[in-house]
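Lecture 7, part B: from sequences to assemblies.

Below are the input chains for today's worked example.
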Amino acid sequence: MLKTSRRTIVAGAALAAVGWAGSAAAQETVKIGAVYPLSGNSASAGEYSKMAMEVGVDVINNGNAELAKIMPLAKGGGLPGLKGAKIQLIFADNQGTPAAGQNQTLRLITEEKVAAVIGAYQSGITLTASAIAERYGIPFLTPESVAANLTERGFKWFFRTTPVAIDFAKAYSAFLKEQKAAGRKVDSVALVHENTEYGNSVASVIAEVFGKDGLSITQNISYSANSTDVQPQVLQLKEKNPDALIFISYTSDAILYAKTMKELNWKPGIMIADDAGFNDPSFVKTMASSVEGLVNRSAFAGGKPGTVPYLFNELYKKKSGGADLDDVSARGLEGFLVMADAINRAGSTDPAKIRDALKATDLKADQMVPGYDGVKFDDKGQNTLASSLITQMRGGQYLAIWPKDRATAEVILPYKGW
Amino acid sequence: MSMTLLQVVVSGLLLGAVYALFSSGLTLIWGMMNVVNFAHGDFVMLGMYTAVVIWTALGGGPWASVPVAAILIATLGVVSYFLLVRHIMKGPMLAQILGTFGLALFLRYAAFWTFGANFRTLPDTLVGHSFVLAGIRFEGSRLLAGVVGLGVTLLLHVILTRTAIGSRMLAVSEDATAAQLMGIRPQRMQALAWALAGAATGIAGALIATFFYTSPTVGETLAIVAFVTVSFGGFGSVLGALVAGLIIGVVESLSAYLIGPVYKDVIVYVLFVLVLWFRPQGLMGKA
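Predicted structure of the full complex, as structure tokens:
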């Protein structure tokens, strides 16, 4: 009974839609599912990503003259490969739990009949949600989950556009070697990391990459992120006095380290922070003046006027009420654009064709919203051209300083601190 | 090497004095009425926010925020006593635990609602600059917190053991009915204990805020230290909390420096378990 009535309504709505579309009756919509945290602890990150992707949908469906000069899909009128089909992005709330993420993905695939799924922010949820897509043979793309094991499962329908720990490590290594070549002292590097999955895994990857690149890690300090005091650790650092220091920290510990280093009056020549705590807006707001010249990473850093990141950021600011695209939302938007490009080239909503198109993806750096070198997937579905920009704290905000061709500011060293 | 080691010990002692300060309120409440205040960490958190608000709204430093926080949290303590604690004390043990735990959650989420989840910090120039004395570096804000911590804890100890009002409070904690027969009003004394504990906790919060971050969940982080300090020193003993705070501060600092930060908790807790093994009542608790 209920089912019949719902079907009737859907049919009615469909009829109305056809009537509305009028002459363009041949047009169809392509449904893409998006599983994001819209409630729970990470809801704010999910909301920002949702807004960013909606900007992307609007650009493809309705066009943007300026972006169209660089991006073929921004001409408006939907996807040319599917006779102008419009994209409909259907959001589902993963509620911050792997179980909900899995259920919502199942619903998107079986009831909404989406052609592909994007998601799911938290690595743990991407893990379960993508397993459902794999079982149903639907392409799943994660724009932001970085856990290494995601691409090690032998999945055939899984793709990842974001850079992962190894990319960050390579960026830091290349940056430090460049500084060394420029005559700066980089003979000893200290790693200071919090001791959960994030800190441990990133630190071990950095240690490995640095080892191969001939940068010597002389100190490796692991600590608990909810410490009440970090004075002894700073004193350990002060005593060994490394030339460069890399932090892998969350927010509260980042604040404590920044404060304590100032109190005990010690700073290295080069100080690098691996995103996370040191990029948290509340850290930047309160501690910026104590970490002037801090080197950080971010996938997104504005860009010059007229470029893809700049133009998308302008559109996004209108939607978000003034907030800029950030590291997470920019990567989310890029994930959506990669999926839209693949569906367009597939010329079909057949999942297998979309997967083949994803595999053949070859996007160039000038098309990128975040600072990637492009998008090209390897056999495991990992984007091999993903890379991170290196930024530096200057008077309260992070500016892109590396690589040179995407820098908006010059590198200033040594680290100034306060 | 030895200079750095000395610096570690001094930092540990100052840290320990602060631990003692924010633990003294907890131990006082226990000593007076055998109630464990699970909302203690959140009292500290509100003291910290008092300092943050006074600075952001009025530009006032600890000279303004310490007395205001003392009065505010003392009031909060008395209100909590009359509205909640007095009633749940008649209930079973579980009701007491869940009662103050509920209060903790209420205060924490009220803070989320009022202040948002963001981390706040006070400018480090608020309490003067750091200085070097005999090769040891002292940070103004930590030194102030440490010295006031020692002072307030000792003052509480003196009030409890050397004054008439202290004797009356102790009489109530020993035997409320007998005290009442002697003309002491138990409820008034217990309310006073909550006021004193609240004031000490407010002072602790306002001082910690000058060198720590403030967030709605910071109470959780600090409460664990307070519970360890109090059971280490002996539930109910203010002097015990002071000694335990100093020991924990120094042991934490030394083990983090000499062995490694991830092991410092192991060492502190091994010591803790050993103390409880040989003296279940804590260093200075009553057997």
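Note for the exam: Strands of chain B lie at 131-133, 136-138. Keep this in mind when comparing with the next example.
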